[in-house]
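User: Can you fold this complex?
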Amino acid sequence: MDNEPTNYSMSSRKSWPIVFWLSGLLGQAEREVVLGDLTEYGESGGRAIANVLGLVVRRKIAVLLDLRLWLAIALVVLPVSYLLSAIAETTAGQGAVYSWMYLNNWDWALTRNPGFWHVLREMAMNFSITCLVLACCSWSAGLLIGCFPNAILQAGRKTFIVLLAASFMIDAPARVIHFWMFLHRLPLRVSLPDIHAPVTANVFYHIFFPWIVLTILVIFPAFSGIRQGNRSMLFGPKMRVLLVTAATVSLLIMLIQAPSSGLLLGAPVRQWLWRNRNAMQVLPLSCCWPMFYFIAIGVGRYGRRKAAIMR
Amino acid sequence: MVLTSGWSGVCCLRFPIDSFLSIYYIVMEMIGEFEYLILSSAARLGAEAYGASIRIETEKATGRRCSIGALYTTLDRLEGKGFVKTWMGEPTRERGGRSKRLVHVTAAGVKEASNFFRVISRISKGASWTTNRLTTR
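Assistant: Here's the predicted assembly.
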């Protein structure tokens, strides 16, 4: 154990790993201070544990009693995690159907058909755009969460992951049974109304593929967004407001596009959306603004580096 | 001086304006006794005020144990109110190469602690423990 106090009794030495582990539940800076204080004070084993545990409990309770956390969960984390989970599920379903069509049923004879290449090109482009929009929306959601005050950031981040996984696992029992049947080589039965029954009968597309999509297109970009949102505290207030507004607008656009969200909009809005459906299909592309943001940051960094070399 | 009821049920005294403000301070703004102990310890220690030293000082003065949890949550609260300023110091050998959280009492903190002391001194005047008269039966 690094920097373990040397002036401690045997019982204190035994308790030190517990103290060390408990202090890990505190923030990095506070952990250093508390361990330093315990070392300097020469606190006995049980007392040291009680002291650190007391501080950890006080800190956790303070976070739970913070009204901002509950507001952030209700207004941002809950809707965003449901939205991303629903879009990821749809994207995974779409990807699974295309992959099953082309990878599991590949026929070399089709390659001689010009129509095949046309459809494949169109499908690849549509699916790539869908994936890009989902990743950018996840990044935007992460950015919003990353802008939470530091006191509630960790709790907000954990709640986001838990809710994301929970809403994604709504049909988890069915998937687990499916996997169990697959492991025991039992004949797989799929429900008849499922038009993609041959695809969902495949254990990879039914169980693993959605989680791969969720991890790559939602969790990784969201964490990158959280990091960026936390760093945006260093930017000026105008830039921060601009980023938060852009992220909020993209999420609202995606909310309109999300499956079954139309039920919340009311009949006149649904009719208007239907009449302008061609424009609505292009609208999600505006959610890809994080790409331009990254390009701008990259160009800025390159410019600064070049200027430094010139000097 | 007339005793009236007001302030959503809190009993208040009708004094001249300065007394009124001091009563308002007592009811709405006054620091707690543990906060006062921390402020006093930090002020006494001066440049040597940090978590462990404040804790030792408080324990010596009160003869009671002071938990790390109570100390640091109180320090956070005092910092939030602007009564102290804290920052991370350099790592030292006796602390196993770990940093201290140094504490400095701000002008607002000094004002608040002195106000608390004044109130306690004023309210204690004539009490049996200050005059050594036994009044309890």
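The longest helix of chain A spans residues 67-104. Chain A has a mean pLDDT of 83.
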